[in-house]
Structure formats: C-alpha cells, structure tokens
Amino acid sequence: MANINLNINPYTFTGSAFFIGLILANELDPLEQATIGNWLQLAGMTIQTYASQVALVESNNNSNSSTNTQTDDLDTIKKAIAKINEELDKLNKK
Description:
Blueprint: H1 10-27, H2 30-93
C-alpha cells in the first residue's frame, strides 16, 4: 500500500470518486447502496482517525524535543554568561 501514487490532480481525484459512486449507485439496489456507502464511510473515518492520531503523537514528540533543545540552549547561554562574569571579575581585580 505504501507504493500508491496519490500525486493526482485534485479535480481528477474527486471526479473519479464521483463517477465510481454514480456507477455503483446505478448497479446496486438501495439497501446495497446504503451498506456499501456506510462501509466506505467507516473505512474513510478509520483512515482519518489513524492519520490524526499519528499527527498528534508526532506533534507532541516534536514539542517535547523542542523543549529539550530550548533547555539545552538556555544551559549553554547560562554557562557562557558565567564565564563572561568570571572574566569580568578577573579584570575588575586587576
């Protein structure tokens, strides 16, 4: 499934779904249409739910690593300030 190429023009992509829906509606009775329609909606919602959870987890991981990076940056700045203060103290003593 990872090899599916979805780099399709949006109009073509949407139009193909529309025409497939019309063909299926023409070939199926109303109960079959409802059943297939519900199944397709459930499949779509499952994909959307999965994708949104992956995005949430990745976002949380990125914000955690960003927080860690900021903490590391602050520590580095504090160390640099401490060294500058040491040098200033040495200069003031001379």
